[in-house]
Amino acid sequence: MKDSKSAQAPIEDLSELKSYFASHNVTREYIAHSSKVHSVGWSCDGRKLASGSFDKTVAIFNLDRYRLDQSFIFRGHTGSVDQLCWHASHPDLLSTASGDKSVRIWDTRSLKCVAVIPTKGENINIAWSPNGSTIAVGNKEDLVSFIDTRTYKVVTEEQFNFEVNEISWNNESDLFFLTNGLGCIHIMAYPGLELQTVVKAHPGTCICIEHDRGGRYFATGSADALVSLWDARELACLRVFSRLEWPVRTLSFSFDGRLLASASEDHVIDIGDTETGEKVCDIPVSAATFTVAWHPTRYLLAYACEDKEPPERKRDVGNLKLWGLPADRG
Predict the structure, then answer these.
(1) Which of 255, 300, 260 is nearest to 276 (CA)?
(2) DSSP at 24
(3) Coiled-coil regions in this chain (predicted)?
(4) Residue 125: which residues within 8 A CB-CB, separation 6 or more?
(5) In angstroms, rounded to a whole number, what is the distance separating the alpha carbons of residues 91 and 214?
(6) pLDDT averaged over the chain?
(7) What's the pLDDT band for 4 if we cut at 50, 70, 90?
(8) What's the angle, vertex CA 94, arms to CA 96 and CA 152, rounded to 5?
(9) Residue partners of 82: CB distance under 8 A and separation at least 6
(10) Which of 66, 76, 109, 135 is least enclosed, having the fewest CB within 10 Å?
């Protein structure tokens, strides 16, 4: 679903892309939480941005062209909100994974929690299948639970004997991907969970994985500071981005699949061109970045860093940032 009022035409030419971001490189910062922001994500129509925090809350912002306005704070989790994801086609439904051994589903229209699903451990990652039927959640003990979204009940669990990092579905929702501590991507059929293949992606721990909206690519980020871009159908590595120096913690594709944002403890977020691997631009930051998210129809990037309050810099700041704003509106 696209918000036609604000949808942006893709820019095909690399030099034009670079020129665009030379004049659309302003960052605006927003106070969202009282502690560190772990996860940010856009609703499928791009009208709302959600952030989850160590302070146990979920903040909802409305996007008004070039500005975010905080509209609501969801409370209910009794532990840190470690990751969130929106429904792929329902713009009001949001799911969150928490260390309090639960998954919650929130409705931003009714401003209510519509379901609390108990799970067996402290949850650290979550993924909602693109067809909307299933939510997968992984915990610190490498157990992945699959929740049927019609009943909001756990229908199956899979215990892995290796470190499970991030989880994701392909766009058809019939393959389930997970990254592990051995540098591999495990790909399983869904819903049967039969192992299809194991791809050795990195020499170091494979930390994060992201599929692009068009279904052409997926990308992985690793402890070796590399980002690998893969052909989603051929399972072939197309190119490697190597501009970061620290373990890659988070990835996001732009709406057209052309740009890949990657971030780490480096004091820069890298924006690379998926077609050539070239750097399009970068975003200077002052602290480690653990979550980035491109808007679903525009060249706008939301992100959050491990910023500290000055002058002692001991207390976490729960702020999020929006980048890609035109210089004349900064």
Answers:
(1) 260
(2) S
(3) none
(4) 82, 83, 97, 137, 138, 165, 166, 167
(5) 18
(6) 95
(7) very low
(8) 75
(9) 38, 39, 52, 97, 98, 99, 123, 124, 125
(10) 109
pTM of the predicted protein model: 0.96
* 3 domain-assigned: no
Q: Do 291 and 307 form a contact (C-beta atoms < 8 A)?
A: no
Distance CA 52, CA 100 (A): 14
9 falls within a domain? no
Residue 86 has which token pair?
A: 């929106």
Backbone angles phi, psi at 315, to 5 degrees: -100, 135
Q: Which residue has the tokens 């890949």?
A: 260
Task: Give 269-290 pLDDT, tens digit per residue.
Answer: 999 999 999 999 999 999 999 9
Q: Cβ distance 176 to 136 under 8 Å?
A: yes
Domain of 164 in residue numbering reads as: 14-329
Residue 4 belongs to some domain of the structure: no
Length of the chain: 330
DSSP 8-state assignment for residue 316: B
Give CA angle at 183 (103, 244), nearest 5°. Answer: 90
Contact 88, 94 (CB under 8 A): no
* Contact between residue 86 and residue 50 where contact means Cβ atoms under 8 Å apart: yes
Tally of domains in the chain: 1
The pair of three-digit structure tokens given for residue 161, joined into one six-digit string? 């004997």
**Is residue 14 helix, strand or coil?**
helix
CATH code of 29's domain: 2.130.10.10
d(CA 185, CA 229): 13
